Each structure stands twice: as C-alpha cells, then as structure tokens.
C-alpha cells in the first residue's frame, strides 16, 4: 500500500529578506499538491483532516499568506463583501457585523468592515476605500437617511443592501424592523401598568427609524381607551453614551421625573441608567424603564431590564441572503423586508396604579402576542 510522505519532523521559519512564500512551497513542505493546499486554505472543498492539518502546519511554518489580489485576477471575481456601519463602538452594529461574518464564512466569502463614525463625510471616504478593493457587493447601515454614498455604489455597479436605517423611498434592497410596532409594544406595556407620564429618550430624530419608533409610541397613547392622557414627551439624547447621560440628567433635574422612560436605542438605555443612578432615582421603585435591543447585560443587571428585542441575527441573515441573490443575477425591483420585534418583560417595569379599563390590559397582551414571533 502506498503511503503519503510524512512532513519533516523539524519546522524552520521561512528565511528573511526574500519574496513572498508561494503555494508551491507550502505544497512541497506538506507533501501534497497545490490543489490540496488551495482547497484547505480557501475552504472551497473538503480535505482529509490529516492532510488539512499538514497543510495548515506547513503554511504556518513558512508564514504563507494567501494573495487575494492574485486569486481575484485568476478567478475573475472577488469573494469579498464590504460592510459599512455608522460605528464600531455600538454593540448593535457589531452584532450585525458578526452575523454577516458567520453567513460569509459559510459560503467562503471574506468581509471587510469600516466605520463612518456617524459622520457623512467620513462615510464617503470609507466607502471609496472599501470600493477600491473591488468587492462583489456591499452591505451598509447608513449614517443618515439620505445616504448620498448610494450614488457612489451605484456608479461602481456593485450590488448592495441597506440595513436598519432605511428611509421611506424604495431606492435599494433593504432589511429593517417594524420600528413603529416595536416601540408600540413598549408603550402598550407601560400603559397597561398604569403609567401616564412617560418620557421617550430618542437618539436623533434626524433618523427615520427613530422617528418611526416615536410615531409608534404616539399611536399607542392616542389609541388608549382612557381619556385625557398626554402624549409622551420626547427628548433627543444623542448617539453616544456620554451625551445621553448628560442630556437626560439635565432634563430630569429641571423637569422632575416621569413615571416611566422608554429608551429607543441600547446606548440610550445605558445612558438613562447612568443618569438615574447619578440622581439617586431607583428603577423600578421611582421610575420604570423599557430599553431597546436586548443584550446579556440587560438580563444580568439588577434589576433586569425590560427591553424590545430586535431580531439581529435574522437581520444579518436576510441581508446576506438578499445580497447573494443579487450576486447570482436575481433581477426585479428593490425588496424591502420589515421584521417584527418582541418585548422581553423583566423587573425594570412595574405597575403604579390599577388599570382603569380592563380592555386596555387585554389590548396590551394582544398586541404583544401578535407581534412576538413564534
């Protein structure tokens, strides 16, 4: 029976002061063909685990790096997708990136990621840099509703999908959530607990998704069966944790505390908690709180935080699915997919008064049940 030659017992680093290591050298060291090396390092085809380990060991010993540019020239196409987000400091955006990365890995794509720092000028520069890599497609969460960068992408002839921050027109494939319905879940929950004076902590009303959330809350209050209920006040708290805490603390010090607060982003939720802590306002004894996005810290906090949960993983999966469809040649008008959210009720909200109208409580439960997937 023939045997595949074993790799050398000793491993020496690649000599310094020379050009890049070739795939042929890796193949020779591992005792396999260049095709086997290519399949192992690209992940395109399954390779016997023993051979695969030898290839990876040889590549590591020689400090071999795949030449993506050369690979692209040979194949005629790049298996790279560019991802542009407003900020890499925001866990919501990084969760989307993580979901896209998982989807890309399954199909042997690479992703390159850039952040716009919530600045339209920086966004334009980052987008130009990403497109210089000649990606197969682009997935973007814009910094603004207008997203002027779309014209740059379209001029490059690259398929793209917009996620989360999507304006009202139909200029691109888009994946978002039902923002109005999601926020209404929060408002209906608080109304059912007897809260009448509710403050809404909104990041920026210049963003369509935030305006939609405010509209959903206003609709819940307008449709509530009790009369004489004031519409909730909205305060713009900014896009960073520090601005949220500072602006909300100043508002509370000047205006007094509401009975409940709805925070429309995860940074807003953190900032609200910081401001309440500085003013020695207790949750939920003094103020009930509903947050947006549902992260592990919200379950671990004391008290645990009632929160609207966005289907982040599914948003990433659907965006990837749509982009891959376009890459495969799917035609047709832009597709706009709007996903439902759910409300995770925890200890940060409590009733402050008996609900005067039993129909309101039933309505709240029906809204939550109807909007919760599964």
UniProtKB/TrEMBL annotation:
Q: Where is the HTH lacI-type domain?
A: 21-75
> Which domain of life, per UniProt?
Bacteria
- Where is the region Disordered? 1-25
Record keyword DNA-binding present: yes
Which CDD domains does this UniProt record tie to the protein?
Answer: HTH_LacI, PBP1_LacI_sugar_binding-like
Classification via InterPro entries: HTH_LacI (IPR000843), LacI/GalR-like_sensor (IPR046335), Lambda_DNA-bd_dom_sf (IPR010982), Peripla_BP_I (IPR028082)
Query: What are the record keywords, sorted?
Result: DNA-binding, Transcription, Transcription regulation
Q: Name one GO molecular function term.
A: DNA-binding transcription factor activity
Q: Write the protein's name.
A: LacI family transcriptional regulator
Naturally occurring in which organism (per UniProt) = Segnochrobactrum spirostomi
């Amino acid at each position: 029976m023939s045997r595949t030659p074993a790799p050398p017992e000793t491993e020496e680093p690649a000599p310094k002061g020379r050009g890049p290591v070739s795939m042929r050298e890796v193949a020779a060291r591992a005792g396999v063909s260049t095709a086997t090396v290519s399949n192992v390092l690209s992940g395109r085809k399954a390779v016997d685990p023993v051979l695969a380990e030898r290839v990876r060991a040889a590549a590591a010993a020689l400090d071999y790096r795949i030449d993506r540019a050369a690979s692209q020239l040979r194949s005629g196409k790049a298996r790279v997708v560019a991802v542009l987000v407003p900020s890499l400091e925001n866990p919501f955006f990084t969760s989307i990136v993580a979901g896209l990365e998982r989807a890309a890995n399954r199909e042997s794509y690479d992703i390159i990621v850039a952040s716009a720092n919530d600045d339209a000028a920086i966004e334009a520069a980052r987008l130009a840099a990403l497109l210089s890599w000649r990606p197969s497609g682009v997935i973007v969460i814009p910094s603004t509703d207008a997203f002027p960068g779309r014209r740059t992408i379209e001029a490059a002839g690259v398929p793209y999908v917009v996620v989360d921050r999507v304006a009202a027109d139909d200029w691109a494939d888009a994946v978002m959530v039902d923002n109005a319905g999601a926020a209404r879940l929060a408002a209906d929950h608080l109304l059912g607990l007897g809260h009448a004076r509710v403050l809404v902590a909104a990041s920026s009303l210049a963003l369509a998704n935030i305006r939609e959330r405010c509209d959903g809350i206003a609709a819940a209050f307008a449709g509530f069966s009790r009369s004489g209920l004031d519409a909730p006040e909205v305060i713009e708290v900014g896009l960073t944790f520090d601005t949220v805490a500072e602006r909300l603390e100043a508002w509370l010090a000047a205006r007094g505390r509401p009975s409940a607060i709805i925070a429309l982003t995860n940074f807003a939720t953190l900032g609200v908690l910081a401001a309440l802590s500085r003013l020695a306002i207790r949750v939920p004894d003094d103020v009930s709180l509903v947050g947006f996005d549902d992260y592990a810290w919200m379950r671990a906090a004391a008290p645990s935080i009632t929160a609207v949960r966005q289907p982040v993983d599914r948003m990433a999966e659907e965006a990837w699915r749509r982009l891959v469809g376009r890459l495969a040649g799917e035609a047709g008008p832009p597709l706009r997919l709007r996903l439902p959210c759910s409300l995770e009720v925890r200890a940060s909200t409590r009733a402050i008064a008996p609900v005067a109208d039993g129909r309101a409580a039933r309505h709240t439960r029906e809204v939550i049940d109807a909007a919760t997937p599964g």
